[in-house]
Amino acid sequence: MTLPLAQAYLEQAKTDYMTYEIIRHHPSQPSSQWLHLLQMTLEKAAKAYLAAANSDFDQLRGSHLAFRRFVRMLPRNETVQEALHMSPEALREHVKNLEPLIAAIEQLVPGRGNEGPTAEYPWRNPLGGFHTPCLYDFGDIVPVIHETTRGRNLLRILQRSLNEESWHVAFGIRQ
């Protein structure tokens, strides 16, 4: 089955999110596993919306940094403002508050000068040797995601972006 690019990204993001939810609640799985899935979900959800806004396929594939670009679009959309019961100014402030956590999650991907930590591949320890994601605690991110208002708000925005049909229509993902 073939889909328009925006819908294809959205469907894959939904699947990644379902897997994230399963792994996150499985006690034997290290946080690196679900963090990797969360990062991929954020990226693909954002790329669905960016693709609907006529972003180029090759350009979208060229970067993992997409969710901050997406959330910065939210305050300009009346459907999102109504769904979240926020004025554009309040929504802009809300997004600004989420950006440090989004940046931390987006930094979990390897490559382009990221010397670690990453959720996917080992990285060099400055003192010699290597860290591996499955043994690293990600203590600067994990508690923020599930134990703070900022983390819960990020997950709510993500869930809305994946499941809110009115958002999909408003951004042109679905007709």
Properties at a glance:
175 residues; 9 helices; mainly alpha; globular; 2% strand
Protein described:
The protein is mainly α. It has one domain (5-171). The chain is built from 9 helices and 2 strands. It has helices at 5-24, 31-52, 57-61, 67-71, 78-84, 88-106, 142-147, 149-163, 165-171; strands at residues 123-124, 130-131. Helix 1 (5-24) runs antiparallel to helix 2 (31-52) and helix 6 crosses helix 8 (149-163). The longest helix is centred in the N-terminal third of the chain and has 22 residues, at 31-52. It is globular, with a radius of gyration of 16 Å. It starts with a helix and ends with a helix. The mean pLDDT is 91.
What's the gist of this structure?
The protein has 175 residues and is mainly α. Helices cover 61% and strands 2% of the residues.
Largest beta-sheet characterization: 2 strands, antiparallel
Helical content class: 55-70%
Number of strands: 2
- Give start-end ranges of low-pLDDT stretches: none
Number of domains: 1
For the termini, the CA-CA separation is 18 Å
Shape: globular
Strand order of the largest sheet: 1-2
Element order, helices and strands? HHHHHHEEHHH
Strand content: under 5%
Q: Nearest-angstrom radius of gyration?
A: 16 Å
What would you call the structural class?
mainly alpha
Quote the average pLDDT. 91
The number of distinct helices, counting runs of at least 4 residues, comes to: 9
